[in-house]
UniProtKB/TrEMBL annotation:
Keyword Signal attached: yes
Name the UniProt record assigns to this protein: Ger(X)C family spore germination protein
Family assignment from sequence similarity: Belongs to the GerABKC lipoprotein family.
An individual GO BP term: spore germination
Superkingdom of origin: Bacteria
Origin species: Paenibacillus foliorum
Length: 397
């Protein structure tokens, strides 16, 4: 009986101790006291200072009316805002922004970082340093480059989305451009490697959704080529898409070519793609074998080509394969001439031939310039569509 009482007493003390330590988090910030950053825009000015702009949603303007969700609350106006400050460093600019806000900044919802061209050319090391040290910042946030100022991108008109950041994020998620993240840059920096990031384009046009007023639109362009942390050049759209091919990320995209019968356009949609890269070392000579495989469907045809003829389909497949091979080779040659291994071929050499890599690591970029690449592309047309005999052929009878 005495043992039972003693055991009960110990259990009661443990229960009381657990209640004492469950006093909550001393550093807790209520959700009503938070300002959620959705995008970060950074420019480098002519005087060397930084211009930092942060995008925030405005909860008081993101209500619903009439039972349906809308972008405007009872107060009217945009459901978001951009706050900008200039300073000699990113951290000081951030401190100035914080001093003007009635809420505490929260980084948990930031998924996009846009840097201006001058910032990219001067180096993004300071941005990577800040992000890597901020524990609440997602390293999977996309990093993109503006053609001029990053702040110009923040002024885009989000027609289909509520926030400008959501537009940029969807570009990367849908892979209509590169989905390079901060994590990719950090991994590249750890290996002294190179990478590429999405390049945006910006302009003004009259928008029906804005009562016909001229508004800023933002779209995707090519890609920015980075050697280590500095931008040294660009890819055009076709070369940017070669990057997607080599990474095996090309999907749900469209490609067109001229029909072999009459030169009219035949369009295809890419269903899937995969790429394999294998380094080869023979007699101290380094080469890479690259194989790209893809499956396409015919999306539309303005040609009188007979899509029911297997020979014509084989001819289209050969033309698609040749076009893809040429684009891949062109993009690789460009990176070789710029001495920027943005496709990460050095990593493949390190994984497969670590001893060879040790010999070339310090001067890899100069070695990379003379490396031979053997590209093999194979595109299969999986389906020709439900219309086996194109309507346009009926008008040629």
């Amino acid at each position: 009986m005495m043992l039972l009482k003693r055991t009960t007493g110990v259990g009661l003390l443990l229960a009381l101790w657990c209640l004492l330590i469950l006093t909550g988090c001393w550093s807790r910030v209520e959700i009503n006291d938070r300002a959620f950053v959705t995008a970060m825009y950074i420019d480098r000015l002519e005087d060397g200072d930084y211009e930092l702009s942060l995008g925030f949603p405005l909860p008081n303007r993101m209500g619903s009316r009439g039972g349906s969700s809308t972008g405007l609350g009872s107060g009217g106006g945009n459901p978001y805002t951009i706050v900008t400050k200039k300073a000699e460093s990113i951290v000081i600019a951030l401190r100035l922004i914080r001093s003007d806000l009635s809420r505490e900044i929260s980084w948990g919802h930031c998924r996009v970082i846009v840097v201006g061209r001058k910032m990219a050319e001067s180096g993004v090391k300071s941005i990577l340093e800040f992000v890597a040290r901020e524990p609440n910042f997602h390293t999977k946030s996309y990093l993109m480059v503006a053609p001029k100022l990053a702040k110009d991108i923040s002024n885009l008109t989000p027609v289909f989305e509520r926030l400008p950041a959501e537009v940029l994020r969807e570009f990367a998620k849908r892979r209509v451009t590169l989905d390079t993240s901060v994590k990719d840059f950090l991994e590249s920096a750890a290996t002294d490697g190179d990478t590429a990031a999405a390049m945006m384009t910006v302009g003004e046009t009259e928008m029906l959704s804005e009562q016909g007023k001229k508004s800023k639109w933002v779209g995707t362009d090519g890609a920015a080529i980075f050697r280590k942390d500095k931008m040294i050049g660009t890819f055009d759209v076709k070369e940017m898409r070669a990057w997607l091919w080599l990474k095996g990320k090309m999907k749900n995209a469209m490609i067109s070519l001229e029909s072999p019968t009459d030169g009219k356009t035949v369009s295809f949609i890419i269903l899937s793609s995969k790429a394999s890269i294998h380094p080869m070392v023979k007699e101290n000579k380094i080469s890479f074998d690259i194989r790209i495989e893809a499956e396409d469907d015919i999306m539309a045809s303005e040609s009188n080509i007979d899509l029911t003829n297997p020979e014509q389909i084989l001819l289209l497949q050969e033309m698609l394969s040749r076009q893809l091979k040429e684009r891949i080779q062109k993009a690789i040659r460009k990176t070789q001439n710029m001495e920027a291994d943005v496709f990460g071929f050095g990593r493949f050499l390190d994984w497969n031939y670590p001893q060879v890599w040790e010999k070339h690591e310090e001067h890899w970029l100069s070695t990379f310039k003379s490396v031979e690449f053997n590209v093999d592309a194979k595109v299969n047309v999986k389906r020709t569509g439900t219309e086996k005999n194109p309507i346009i052929r009926q008008f040629h009878r």
